[in-house]
Write a sequence for this structure.
């Protein structure tokens, strides 16, 4: 089983203008640096929560069809494709009418299951016989929970204030502020 990021997010959950307002920075000299900090902080928030913040495409590969696919990057928005190698070794694409996305719980995994009374097709016994590609993330920055955005801004502030620290950009323990992400952590089965 492997989960691979295919297409990263192209938009930011926290805009440069929002971050600069939070930092009380009026000049454009550090715009590139602040943008890099926003990206890094967003990636840290995604890692801490197991959640996709902005729309991005993921691919889950398995050796065979499970009873149900567990999609751990939520919110799962849509299924792009479900491909598999049939018993003859020919790659097939399963039609969307044959499966259902259950994404009712925003705080746990989403699941992809066969339609009622349906079953998954047989696959060839090989590594990565099944590939599920899906889009996960909040539709727009306005849909990202305020607590996540607040944590990103606080992390950007810590990075900006300590940008001359020795070594690479790191996660700064924010004490109580780190608790802002707790509610949004995905708990996989």
């Amino acid at each position: 089983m492997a989960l691979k990021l295919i297409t990263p997010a192209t938009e930011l959950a926290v805009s440069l203008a929002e971050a600069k307002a939070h930092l009380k920075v009026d000049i454009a000299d550090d715009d590139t640096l602040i943008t890099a900090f926003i990206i890094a902080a967003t990636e840290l928030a995604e890692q801490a929560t197991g959640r996709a913040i902005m729309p991005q495409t993921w691919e889950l590969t398995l050796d065979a069809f499970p009873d149900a696919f567990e999609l751990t990057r939520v919110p799962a928005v849509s299924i792009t494709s479900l491909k598999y190698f049939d018993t003859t070794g020919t790659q097939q694409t399963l039609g969307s009418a044959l499966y259902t996305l259950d994404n009712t719980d925003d705080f746990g995994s989403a699941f992809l299951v066969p339609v009622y009374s349906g079953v998954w097709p047989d696959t060839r016994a090989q590594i990565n016989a099944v590939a599920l590609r899906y889009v996960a993330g909040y539709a727009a920055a306005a849909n990202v929970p305020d607590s996540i955005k607040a944590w990103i801004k606080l992390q950007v502030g810590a990075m900006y204030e300590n940008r001359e620290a020795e070594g690479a950009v790191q996660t700064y323990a924010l004490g109580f502020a780190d608790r802002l992400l707790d509610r949004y952590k995905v708990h996989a089965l």
Q: What stands out?
A: The longest strand covers residues 76-85. The longest helix spans residues 31-49.
